[in-house]
């Protein structure tokens, strides 16, 4: 392993890594050479030199073109990671030289954004107003792929969903409780606990089948002895979910409680007092092992750890005022 590392460090060229990425994209040596502004013979020689260093072929030739084998996929992933990191380096250097600060790319699950990501970003921006920030909201599994590719500096999500969680550093932050919600114009709900069975007359706005919240609702329905709805509206968008709930009184949905609380406070949604049986899922800070964090990423993580998310306080309905004469009677009694 040490000999291979020394050989790569002494002979590996960025042009070879860029060629691997072009081959993965184009599936053709001729097309990849064109993208790289190289002759086909020069591209072929560069690939052979890299395969010789690794002592194994990286591609298989098929009717559909040059397809990476298992080793090829591994090397290409790291090639993308290195080129992405170098691109980010050049970008950061240029921005720092120009006095515009650096760049930070964060991935976050939906439920972590209001109570966790937003407060930390506000504090970070207060000290670094010229910092460029990108926030990606997606499932943990998809964001971990972007973390692997170097497109994200860190993820606020779950490392356990990865095929190999040991690749990451994971620092737990908090839980992501869920709430059942309807539009604010929905008829008044009873104060007592509502069962999922009581919502049988409603249509569900659900998440696509690849998302964890879909599996959780499926589990809740199963525990309640119910079938999944036959005629749901499926969307991964919070905005679409809220807009649909507001437009119709017969729709109901499941949202992270932190997100639901935002819209409840703005009188756009109402909480349905359904007690879910599934435990809240924990989320945390996920970073790559062996990766070097930029100063903005380190500061952002420190802010998250110093000021962890606070549990959501479910809004209480306003207390009814008693007529003056009734209040006086109760006081005198």
UniProtKB/TrEMBL annotation:
Q: Where are the compositionally biased (Basic residues) regions?
A: 317-333
The protein's superkingdom reads: Bacteria
What are its GO cellular component terms?
cytosol
Q: Name one GO molecular function term.
A: DNA-binding transcription factor activity
**Region (Disordered) location:** 307-333
Q: HTH lysR-type domain: which residues?
A: 12-69
Q: Which InterPro entries match?
A: HTH-type_LysR_regulators, LysR_HTH_N, LysR_subst-bd, WH-like_DNA-bd_sf, WH_DNA-bd_sf
Which keywords fit this entry according to its UniProt record? Answer: DNA-binding, Transcription, Transcription regulation
Gene3D superfamilies listed in its UniProt record: 3.40.190.290, Winged helix-like DNA-binding domain superfamily/Winged helix DNA-binding domain (1.10.10.10)
Task: Give the protein family.
Answer: Belongs to the LysR transcriptional regulatory family.
Name under which the protein is recorded = LysR family transcriptional regulator
Source species of the chain: Paraburkholderia aromaticivorans
């Amino acid at each position: 392993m040490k000999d291979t590392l020394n050989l790569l460090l002494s002979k590996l060229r960025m042009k070879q890594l860029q060629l691997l990425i072009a081959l993965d994209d184009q599936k053709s040596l001729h097309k990849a050479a064109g993208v790289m502004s190289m002759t086909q013979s020069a591209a072929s020689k560069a690939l052979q030199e890299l395969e010789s260093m690794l002592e194994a072929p990286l591609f298989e030739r098929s009717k559909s073109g040059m397809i990476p084998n298992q080793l090829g996929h591994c090397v290409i992933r790291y090639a993308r990671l290195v080129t992405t990191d170098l691109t980010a380096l050049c970008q950061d250097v240029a921005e720092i030289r120009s006095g515009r600060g650096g760049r930070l790319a964060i991935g976050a699950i939906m439920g972590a954004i209001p109570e966790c990501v937003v407060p930390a970003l506000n504090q970070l921006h207060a000290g670094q107003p010229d910092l460029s920030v990108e926030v990606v909201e997606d499932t943990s599994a998809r964001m971990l792929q972007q973390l692997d590719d170097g497109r994200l500096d860190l993820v606020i999500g779950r490392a356990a969903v990865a095929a190999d969680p040991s690749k990451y550093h994971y620092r737990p932050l908090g839980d992501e409780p869920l709430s059942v919600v309807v539009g604010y114009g929905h008829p008044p709900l009873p104060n007592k606990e509502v069962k999922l069975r009581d919502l049988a007359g409603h249509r569900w706005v659900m998440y696509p089948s690849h998302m964890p919240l879909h599996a959780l609702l499926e589990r809740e329905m199963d525990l309640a002895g119910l079938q999944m709805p036959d005629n749901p509206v499926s969307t991964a968008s919070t905005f679409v979910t809220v807009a649909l709930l507001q437009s119709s009184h017969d729709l109901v949905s499941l949202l992270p409680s932190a997100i639901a609380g935002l819209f409840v406070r703005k009188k756009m949604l109402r909480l349905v007092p359904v007690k879910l049986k599934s435990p809240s899922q924990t989320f945390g800070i996920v970073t790559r092992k062996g990766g070097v964090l930029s100063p903005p990423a380190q500061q952002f993580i420190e802010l998250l750890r110093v000021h962890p998310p606070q549990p959501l306080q479910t809004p209480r309905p306003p207390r009814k005022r008693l007529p003056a004469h009734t209040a006086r009677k109760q006081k005198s009694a």
